[in-house]
Structure prediction request, 309 residues.
Amino acid sequence: MLRASILIPVFNSASTLPRCLASAQAQTLADIEILVTDDASTDDSAALAEAAARSDPRIRVLRQAENAGKPHAMNVMMGQARGDWVAVLDADDSYAPDRLARLIAVAERHGVDMAADNLEYVDAGVPGESGFGTVLRTAFDPARPDAVVGKPEFVSAADSYADFDYGLLKPVIRRSFVLAHNLTYHEGSRLAEDFTYLMEYFVAGGRLAVCAAPLYRWTLPFGTVSRKWTQTGAGAWRYDYRGAIAANAVFIARMRAKGETDVVEMLQRRDRQYRVMVHYIAAQRRAAEGHRAAALLTVARHPSVWRLL
Prediction:
């Protein structure tokens, strides 16, 4: 049995995939595999992954005939994974070299089935240009002590408007827990899919060890140094909050049927936040396209957007 599986869903990420793969290959933890699913990319992502696989037998590449979204790719890879632990790595992000070793040690020390770490926020930018890969800050204070949280703590901290939304955590999870509770990614959502997966984990009775060390390097959608939007995945406007609202409604109904009142209330709060984000993104898009008057009109019609601006 392998110690860990790294799952990398890929869609049009040729500019960042080499950095992502290199960080996975550089892990200090022995006995790992690296699964890559190319979700019908139209750039060189699949060719880059397959070239890496030819030189590293730990890498396995799966190719989707049609674009089906990250949740489907994750479910496919989860079914193929052989490691005791499974970790997600988005194709525009990267790991610190000792990330897997440290997180698995933290989880096992605390006797939990999932661990996650602090995030370094990285400028999107363009490879070879100023700002690309610049670390801007951490998600939360790395000096704070590690903690173990359950469902109540996660529900209170999973707030899109908080300084750090726990729904953004990138977990390492024990595969036996996934199999025992039949945890899957919600394939109807192409946004906030990691949050939904985390929530399913806590509803199943799981606990999470949160490590304060920033070991996951998360690429922002917009780089404040480079002044560039990300061009990976679906590009600058990949944040489809209407899809998140629809998926959230399905999840609310499921949790209401289970009597998970606290979860339902939290999901309803996120629904309101997602609806604000629909108008916020619409205003951003109109401004970026040079339609400033239309952008201002959107904000005027939806005053809740002012808080984000």
Summary: The chain has ten helices and ten strands. The mean pLDDT is 88. The two ends are 50 Å apart (CA to CA).
